[in-house]
């Protein structure tokens, strides 16, 4: 089955620094990947849709300059949290759908970001 | 505006009995529906899905029912097992490749031994 690898699984960083999270589709190509954020005991909120070779599409209220998304290849999308602050602490999850199976949404294992 | 609603935050059932998890949606453009199981600090795991052209889909112990006129779907787990204890998310997407998923708030299922 389709596998999505997300790295790192957890990270602690200081306020003001930037953190990069990687999302890889291991055995399929994904033109489109999605980035979600989940606060404790809440739903998964879509942050942005990452499109290979073009700019990401951000959801309303998500700062594109703070959450930089790069989708440079058909198997890799990265989310960079720039100038992180404690309120950015959250659980970030990526998702990818195989180009051959557009409803096959597969999720990574998530990244726990803690900003101190 | 919450387009996918899971109004019951939790459900507790006895092992061996049926678990029924409900989900309602408001967006008529939703065309495909999915259920995910999730543990804390992990990504969601796909369980079962259903297209709007069907009213039922079954996979082992899991069955999803869709009532389009009521904009309602439900996930049935029979028989329930303690390992089923987790948070279950309902998600929906409109027609079209790589359309974004909209999630409900999730239901915490506890299966008592």
Note down, in words, how this protein is organized.
The complex is a heterodimer of chains A (116) and B (113). Chain A is built from no helices and eleven strands. With 116 residues, chain A is mainly β. By secondary structure, chain B is an all-beta fold. Chain B contains no helices and eleven strands. In chain B, a hairpin with a 6-residue loop joins strand 4 (30-38) and strand 5. Chain B starts with a strand and ends with a strand. Chains A and B meet through strand 5, strand 9 and strand 10 of A and strand 4, strand 5, strand 9 and strand 10 of B.
Keywords:
heterodimer, A: 116 residues, mainly beta, 7-stranded mixed sheet, 4-stranded antiparallel sheet, 0% helix, 51% strand, B: 113 residues, globular
Describe the structure in brief:
The complex is a heterodimer of chains A (116) and B (113). Chain A is mainly β and 116 residues long.
Mass-distribution shape of chain B: globular
* Termini separation of chain B: 38 Å
Report Rg of chain B: 13 Å
Radius of gyration of chain A: 13 Å
Number of strands of chain A: 11
Number of helices in the DSSP assignment of chain B: 0
How would a textbook summarize the main sheet of chain B? 6 strands, mixed
* Structural classification of chain A: mainly beta
Query: β content of chain A, as a range?
Result: over 45%
What distance separates the N and C termini of chain A?
37 Å
Oligomeric description of these chains: heterodimer
Q: State the secondary-structure class of chain B.
A: mainly beta
Q: What is the H-and-E element order of chain A?
A: EEEEEEEEEEE
DSSP strand content of chain B: over 45%
Which H/E pattern describes the elements of chain B? EEEEEEEEEEE
Number of helical runs of chain A?
0
Helix content estimate of chain A: under 10%
Mean pLDDT across residues of chain A: 93
Spans of at least 5 consecutive residues with low confidence of chain B: none
